[in-house]
Write a sequence for this structure.
């Protein structure tokens, strides 16, 4: 099928290519529609196509042995989510699920290899994309590896809680992440861990501190 | 009045990703403009905030001590 030229041009893999090159590359893609909630790829599966999100959004995650889900990234239009397994010819290290009705453009591994041989610019772009992805994941791994993030989140909660007479600061998970020098995904995980330990209770749009002493101990332990 | 996610129209580029991920129908696009409708079905999943590429949606949490609500 002929893939939209403007869409291809917006993908980092294909930046810097002229219209003729984009039109030619577009012939190698096929379209796939996915329903909200559908699992597009399971961890451990063999991957045959590189998929780019044309519309909608996908969450990429890993699931622990006890069923806990760790979101690694949100993939938006113009981004790919399964390139690692495509390029190293191994199984997928992550699962991917549609957060909305999603349109994907896919290109087979064989056709992608042909593209990389025929278009050095695409190969160069690909190394840059993978390097950026590696940097993001290293940052995430670093945060996930250190328990002191939980202590910093505990401190943010204590310092921003309302005192009964004055309302506390209202914070998004993104703002908490910025305050503790981490990323939103780690803050979400930390909040769930704090709830599991009985220190807080997560309500609809409220975080209720149920064990102030426990939070204070976590702050102290992380200092 | 039920609190709902907040939208900063100045930042919103109307890409519609928030509409597509919202499972309770609270976020709609009419005349190329995003609107958030009050509904009890909104469970504060924060997916709209998570997918927004321009940080136009805010799902803030109030932080309180247990005996001070």
């Amino acid at each position: 099928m002929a893939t939209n030229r403007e869409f291809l041009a917006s993908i980092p893999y294909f930046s810097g290519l002229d219209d003729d090159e984009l039109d030619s590359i577009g012939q190698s893609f096929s379209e796939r529609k996915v329903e909200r909630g559908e699992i597009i790829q399971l961890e451990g599966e063999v991957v045959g196509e590189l998929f780019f999100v044309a519309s909608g959004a996908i969450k990429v995650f890993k699931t622990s042995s006890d069923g806990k889900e760790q979101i690694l990234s949100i993939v938006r239009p113009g981004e790919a989510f399964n390139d690692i397994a495509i390029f190293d010819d191994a199984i997928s290290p992550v699962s991917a699920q549609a957060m909305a009705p999603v349109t994907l453009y896919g290109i087979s591994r064989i056709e992608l290899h042909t593209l990389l041989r025929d278009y050095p610019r695409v190969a160069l772009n690909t190394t840059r994309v993978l390097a950026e992805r590696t940097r993001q994941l290293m940052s995430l791994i670093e945060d996930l590896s250190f328990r002191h993030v939980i202590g910093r989140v505990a401190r943010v909660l204590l310092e921003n809680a309302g005192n009964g007479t004055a309302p506390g600061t209202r914070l998004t998970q993104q703002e908490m992440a910025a305050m503790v020098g981490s990323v939103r995904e780690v803050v979400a995980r930390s909040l769930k861990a704090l709830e599991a330990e009985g220190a807080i209770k997560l309500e609809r749009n409220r975080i209720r501190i149920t064990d102030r002493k426990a939070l204070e101990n976590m702050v102290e332990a992380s200092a | 009045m039920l609190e709902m996610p907040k939208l900063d129209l100045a930042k919103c580029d109307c890409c519609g990703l928030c509409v597509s991920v919202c499972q309770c129908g609270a976020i709609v696009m009419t005349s190329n403009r995003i609107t958030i409708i009050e509904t009890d079905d909104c469970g504060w999943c924060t997916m709209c905030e998570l997918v927004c590429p321009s940080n136009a949606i805010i799902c803030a949490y109030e932080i309180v001590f247990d005996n001070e609500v």
